[in-house]
Amino acid sequence: MSAEAARFRFVSANRRVREDRRFVAGHGRYVADIALEGMLHVAILGAQHPAARILSIDPSAALAMPGVHYVLTGEELAGATDQLMNGLDTPNVRRFPLALGQTRYAGEWVAAVVADTRALAEDACEKVKVSYERLPYLTQAEEALDPSSPPVHPAHGSNVLLDKQFVWGEVDRHFAESPRQLSFRVTWGRNSTVPIETFGVVASWDPWSEMLDVWASIQMPKYPDQIARALRIPANNVRVHHDVDVGGSYGVKRGIKHTVLAAHLARRLGRPVRLLEDRLENMRGGDAHGPERIFDVDVAFDDAGIVRSMKMRALDNAGAYAGRAPFQLGKPIGAIVGPYKIESVAYRAQSVTTNKAVQEAVRGFGQSPTNYAIETALDKVGLACGLDRIEVRRRNFIRKEEFPYLIPSGTRYDSGDYHTVVDKVLAHVDYPALVAERDRLRAEGMLAGIGIAACLEPSGGNSAFEPLLNEKNETTTWMESVRINVDGTGCVAVTIHTTSSGQGHETLAATVVAEVLEIDPDLIRIVRPDSLACLPSNTPVGSRMAIMMGGACFHAAQKLKAKLLRIGAHRLGLAPEAARYQGGSVGAVSGGQALDWAALVNIAHRNFHLLPPDTEPGLESTHVMQVPTGTSLPKDGRVQMYPCHSFEFHLVLVALDPVLGKPEIRRYVIGHDCGTVINPHIVKGMTLGGIAHGLGAALLEEFVYDEEGQMLTQSFMDYLLPSSHEMPKVEIVHHCTPSPFTVFGQKGSGESGYLGAPAAISGALNDAVAEFGISFDKLPIRISAISDAVAAARVRSSEETTS
Amino acid sequence: MKVALLVNGAVREVDVEPRKTLLDTLREDLSLTGAHAGCEHGVCGACTVLVDGAPVRSCLMFAVQADGLDITTIEGLASAPGELSVLQDSFCETHGLQCGFCTPGMILASHALLEANPAPTRADIAEAISGNICRCTGYGQIVEAVELAAERLRLANAPRAAAGGRP
Ligand code: FES
Ligand code: FES
């Protein structure tokens, strides 16, 4: 660990992750493990066609089956609930959990069947007769821009959800003055985070207390509020239970439509209802896809490879409803120049509807695709100038002494030392030896390439992109809260107000509170009250919890410590300045008698007569923390997006047989700087998992739709997730540049690895095939694409030599 | 249909529909919820249990097929409540998990490996867990956990001198 770490006892220490014990024993508590008395089960009937009018739904045969209780249609549900929110100002793009009158993508939910068992509900689904009238449809984003394309939402008038042009700085002048320019297009394929646990929800309605209880595998800000709004009930009639373990999310577990549907059924039928997606429902109709994006990029630069200005158009295929797709074009504005000193940027963000499944928030919230485009630009500039690809990055990097650094789009980067991280990685790998290894592989007849990516992970998430893209939205608050209670026996309980999906929040909270109070973290109990007992929270989105929950823990513990100090000083007859807190005791700065933890707790809980005047009895503190730097609304199309910026530098060696085309990663090194690390195991896991996820996006994963608008990759046999065979051993090189904006100097790491891996692996493959004069400009780069492209290039070159 | 399963050393009788999978039977009829449903089509391995010591996808097997067979689930690995096996503890030591959803399957697949091969190479481990998908970890800390467990088990089983103890 760095010298910084020496300041801490528990922060940055090599301590176990406390959550792990229950999981390795098989005693996690996931939503599928929750079985309520009398619970009914739901199966979903998905639409056959990408676009069709629903003429009629006949449930009679299904309802005639013994054990089948109900068939819910879109019409009933839309009558009983309000439409789901989308955050944009597009009132005519209406979305309900079940299709209303018309289906807009193959797999869209048309009806829900409720039965005694899930198997029975599935059987009954097959008996529901729906007659459709097919409508014209579209699947391609560029087609959607054509005003004559069939509108997915006729009432909206076009397929354009968002088309916003930003110009930050003197783009035209910089382009005119630059001696060199280049343009290119890259495409990010539609993929997602695809957790191994699908989404599930259990809802139960008590008509006497008018209370809706919800257990869900959820990771979603404002979830109870949105449930209440859709169901038209007061928000304090909704109780979301947070003691549910979520089996992976990375952004997408936002099953609001599932929840509204299940909750409606629970109310309607007076029985608890469970909706657990199966894999097919999840992939086709779970509305959990990620960005699908075309980037058209122009860069202006000079002969030395210095990039002065960039124009980027990002066209995103949102799918059939707005979902979170448009906003995933907004967040990358906060790091639109990556780690580079690009002086001006023009950015056009376009989001269009097509007849595909809906997007949800995906790890990085649009940043990884954007980084792929930026890094491709840097590779191309290097190539154009005859510069080494690392050298061109170094020349453009923001320098350590220039932080905090204001980028053209209005975000001030907190801190960084990019040059040093790169130097450390190059020293670690012995870069000349790596190049020699690549050349040796080439000499053996293999294709081999080195890939490089240098990019940022904006962290400490808020929703500044919402007011930026929708002026009617004036949200600047994006808080996280923690409460600490020390009971009368001196035991400490800390409440956190969210579910977790593997991020280790219990470990985080215990570590930070213990650090401040100087007590053993293992003595601290972490609890997750239900949403009605919660303080405001925005859940773990945008790589925010180390910063936000960690920050809230820190401040709440400081308040508690201050109270202990006041109590101790008063009892000892000392002025507060003359007393000091140490290891749970309070004594005089000058030494001598001290009151230990038990004595202080006893005064707080039992001796009101010994408390300082105007002191509340008990030992409890809360802190509601606002995102650091999140102080103002956007102005002139500029905004401070996230507060902190972690840095990652990827260096990859890929080799492949030119005939087979199967890439094998021979070496994978990442330099990672996320400031002060709170738990090294957790950060390491995030980074390795993020790289695996990025490897999937680069080489394997895509939700592919055919010409008929049907999704082809709807099982794990077609949608391929990386296995232990594909994942190489990854070497991590650490660096620590503390953030000046956080309590320990920590930054986020929940998206690390994923943000640069696709760019790095794509760069390596392009380096490998450069000798044929070809390159890949679309992810994922599948084995077949590689072998076909190489074979075609070889045919071309042999024709040239023979002609 | 009535079936007698030998689960974690005890005979458990259940009455199940013939089409009910072993996974659903373990979870719903026997309240053993450590095995998870990730895909229910035999790819992810989250439903892995040991049948006569070998890792099996319980989503691809009917409960009636398991009649009389010896089944070990994740709940059967620890010696007592609150205890962990050496392998389970090693997963905690290296943080070989995050959300925990794939973890029972990963541990059972690794357990079967270590039973058969006390000194697996990295490649052996990667092969043994390659039928279990983990979306969280990128596998690095899982491989480390199995390596660590193998080492600990070897030491535990070695004669004193070889284990570095006093002669
Ligand atoms: S649930 Fe059995 S293999 Fe995925
Ligand atoms: S720990 Fe989450 S899928 Fe493996």
Automatic annotation (TrEMBL), chain A:
Q: Which InterPro entries match?
A: Ald_Oxase/Xan_DH_a/b, Ald_Oxase/Xan_DH_a/b_sf, Ald_Oxase/xanthine_DH-like, AldOxase/xan_DH_MoCoBD1, AldOxase/xan_DH_MoCoBD2, AldOxase/xan_DH_Mopterin-bd_sf
Q: Which UniProt keywords apply?
A: Molybdenum, Oxidoreductase
Pfam families, from UniProt?
Ald_Xan_dh_C, MoCoBD_1, MoCoBD_2
Q: Which residues form the Aldehyde oxidase/xanthine dehydrogenase a/b hammerhead domain?
A: 25-136
Please indicate if the UniProt record lists Iron as a keyword: no
Check the record and name the SMART domains matching this protein: Ald_Xan_dh_C
Q: Which GO terms describe its molecular function?
A: iron ion binding; oxidoreductase activity
Has keyword Transit peptide? no
PANTHER family attached to this UniProt entry:
ALDEHYDE OXIDASE 1-RELATED, XANTHINE DEHYDROGENASE
> What is the name attached to this protein's record?
Xanthine dehydrogenase family protein molybdopterin-binding subunit
Organism phylogeny: Bacteria, Pseudomonadati, Pseudomonadota, Alphaproteobacteria, Hyphomicrobiales
UniProtKB/TrEMBL annotation, chain B:
Which intervals of the chain form a coiled coil?
Answer: none
* Any Pfam family hit: Fer2_2
Q: Annotated Gene Ontology MF terms?
A: 2 iron, 2 sulfur cluster binding; metal ion binding; oxidoreductase activity
Give the highest taxon in the source lineage.
Bacteria
UniProt keywords, alphabetically? 2Fe-2S, Iron, Iron-sulfur, Metal-binding, Oxidoreductase
User: What sequence ranges are listed for the domain 2Fe-2S ferredoxin-type?
Assistant: 1-77
List the protein's name. Answer: (2Fe-2S)-binding protein
